[in-house]
Design goal:
Blueprint lengths: L6 H126 L12
């Protein structure tokens, strides 16, 4: 029995291990480069962190002002709504009073309007009859 490892298998294993060593070296090299980049970015990230925190404080103050403004607007709108409701109630009571008074004189106004319509109809008929008969003479004038 032959317990010897085949030569081809040794070459393949050697190439595999060599590729693993090269990959490990490349990974270590890339990792060191990324570490240097992270060290370069650290001051920039720190300054951005400070700016973001400052912006957060400003946004909080703006939000507080907006909340205060909205509360003030709500109070103003509620006050305006109450005043508008009061005005509407006054107008309604005034209209109710006026309608009661107008309903009392409405028959008189209707009578006057009917008499005026009758007068205009009679006048129109008279004018039409006058225009249709050219020989009709005007009423004789007063003698002196």
């Amino acid at each position: 029995m032959n317990n010897e490892i085949p030569t081809l298998w040794l070459w393949v294993s050697g190439l595999f291990f060599l590729a693993g060593i090269i990959t490990f070296g490349a990974t270590a090299y890339v990792l060191l480069k990324m570490l240097k980049m992270a060290e370069e970015f650290k001051p920039k990230v720190d300054s951005l962190t400070v700016k973001v925190e400052a912006l957060t404080v400003k946004l909080d103050s703006v939000a507080d002002r907006v909340d205060a403004t909205m509360a003030s607007v709500k109070i103003s709108v509620d006050g305006f709504g109450g005043k508008a409701q009061s005005i509407a109630g006054s107008v309604e009571s005034m209209v109710t009073g006026v309608s009661g008074k107008v309903s009392g004189i409405a028959p008189i106004i209707n009578g006057i309007m009917a008499a005026y319509k009758i007068y205009t109809a009679v006048k129109a008929h008279h004018d039409q009859a006058k225009a249709a008969d050219p020989k009709a003479k005007a009423l004789p004038g007063k003698k002196k």
